[in-house]
Amino acid sequence: VQQPPSPDALVEMMLKVAQARDRQAFALLFRYFGPKLKTFFLRWTMSSLVAEDLVQETMLTVWRKASYFDADRAGVATWIFTVARNIRIDHLRRHRDPSALPPDPETAMDTVEDGMLGAERDAAVRDALTVLSSEQQTIIRLSYFSEKSQTEIADELGIPLGTVKSRTRLAMNRLRALLEDKS
Amino acid sequence: MTTTHHATDETLMRYAAGTLAAAPAIVVKAHLASCPACRARVGEYEALGGALLEETEPTQMSATALNDVLAMLDEEDAPVSFAPPPLAPVEIEGIRLPDALRGCDIGRWRWIGPGMKMSRVGVPQDPDANLILLKVGPGRALPDHGHVGTEFTYIVSGSFSDRFGRFLPGDLAEMDEDVEHQPIVDKDGECICLAAMEGKMRFKNVIGRMLQPIFGI
Ligand SMILES: [Zn+2]
Ligand SMILES: [Zn+2]
Questions:
Q1: Label partner for A2 (CA 20 to 30 A): which of B48, B122, B201, B211?
Q2: Distance, CA A26 to ligand 1 centroid (Å)?
Q3: Which ligand is in closest contact with the Cα of B152?
Q4: Lowest-confidence segment of A84-98, A158-172, B106-120, B200-214 by average pLDDT
Q5: Are residues A25 and A88 in the same domain?
Q6: A111 C-alpha vs ligand 2 centroid, how far in Å?
Q7: Residue A11: which CATH number?
Q8: Boundary of a domain, candidates A55, A85, A113
Q9: Where does the ChrR-like cupin domain lie (chain B) (predicted)?
Q10: Contact check, Cβ <8 Å, B79/A18
Q11: Do A111 and B13 touch (CB under 8 A)?
Q12: Angle at alpha carbon of residue B210, lines to B206 and B214, rounded to 5°
C-alpha cells in the first residue's frame, strides 16, 4: 500500500502546477484526488458517468486556477474541496436551468485569520476529526455530503432534532477547542 | 464596523459545505465581507470539508480519465492571472450595495406601504430564490410576522430593533422558523436591508396579508 502524500508534498505539487505548469505534478494530484473526488460526487447520487465528468471539470479548474492557490490560506485538500463544491453547485444550477449564466469566476476561498498555515490547519482538522465520536462524525458527514437540513437528518437517523443540534454543536466545539490548542 | 449579530454555526457550515440555497448564501456572503470572525469560521468549515475529502475512500476512475484530462490541458490557454479588472460597485439609485449582489438583477424601488419600499432581487443561478431589498422609514414597523423557514436579513444601512436587540449595518439577523417578531426601524434614519427567505413569510395582521401577494414571498 502506497503512503498518501504529506500535506507539504501536496503543496509542492500544487506550486509546481501553478508556477511551472508541471504536468507530472498535475498527474500526481489527479491520481491522488481524482478517485476521492469521484466518491465525493457519487455521494450526491450522481451517475458514475456524471461523477467522472465532474472530476475532470474539477481537475481542469485546478489546472486553470492553480495561481489562485495560496498555501497560507488553505491546504491543498481544502482548496480542491472548495473547487469541487463550486463545480457541484454549478452543475445543480445548470441542471435546473440550462439558460443559467456561466459559473461565477470568483474563487470562493475566504481569508482565514487564525494564524495557522493552510496545510497545518488541514492536518489539525484531520486529526481533530478522528477524535470525534462516531455519532458526531456521522452527523458531520451527512452535513457535507447531502443537502439535508438538520430536521431531515434527524428524520433519517430516527433521533430527535434536539439531539442532532446538540451533537453538531458538540462536534463543532470539540473541533474548535482542538484547533485552538494547535494555533 | 462592529458586528454583534452573526450567522449561526449551522449556517456557516452549510455555506462552507455548499448546501445553503443561493439567496441565503448571498446574504451570508454580504455579512462575511464585513465580519472577520465568521470568515475565519467558514475557513475552518472548509478545512473540515478538505479533511472529509481526504479520508474519503477512492472509487476507481476509468482507465482513460487521466489521459483525457491531460489531452484537454493542451487546449488550455495561459493560466488565469491574478489582478482581475476592478469591478464597478453594485448600487440601487445611487445607494451602494454589498458586492455579494454582483451579477444579480436588482429591480427598482416599489412602494409597498407607508414609508416602505421594496426591490425584488433576481438571482440568475436560482429562479426560485426569495431575495428582496427593503427600505423602511425611520420609526416604521415592519408587519408583525412569523416564518415558515429561516429568514436571513443583512443590514445594509440604518438600524432596526426587535425583541432580540438592535441590528446595525453589517449585522446578520437569522430568524428561525416558529420565531415571531416585529422589527421597528430606529428613529434616527431609514433602514435598508437585504432579506432572504428559505420558506414563505407568515404575516399576522390584515395589512400583512394584503402585502403578501405584493411581496410574493
Ligand atoms: Zn459574523
Ligand atoms: Zn422576520
A1: B48
A2: 37
A3: 2
A4: B200-214
A5: yes
A6: 30
A7: 1.10.1740.10
A8: A113
A9: 108-194
A10: yes
A11: no
A12: 155
Distances (CA, A) of B149 to A2, B12, B40: 48, 17, 26
Cα(B53)–Cα(A180) distance, integer angstroms:
22
Q: Are residues A80 and A167 in the same domain?
A: no
**Domain at B1-59+95-217, CATH class:** mainly beta
CATH number at residue A143: 1.10.10.10
| A chain contacts of residue B14, beta-carbon cutoff 8 Å | 143
Choose among B9, B42, B59: nearest Cβ to A38. B59
CB nearest to A56's CB, from B48, B65, B127: B65
Structural domain boundaries enclosing A8? 1-113
- pLDDT tens digits for range B25-48: 999 999 999 999 999 889 889 999
Measured distance between the N- and C-terminal CA atoms of chain B, rounded to whole angstroms: 30
DSSP for residue B181: B
Residue A57 and residue A88 in one domain: yes
Model pLDDT for residues A130-146, shown as the tens digit of each residue: 888 888 888 888 888 87
Does residue A122 lie within any of the structural domains? no
- Cβ count within 10 A of residue A49: 9
Question: Which grid cell sits at B153?
Answer: 436579513
A7 touches chain B (CB under 8 A): no
Q: Is A23 among the domain residues?
A: yes
Interface ipTM:
0.85
Q: pTM above the 0.80 mark?
A: yes
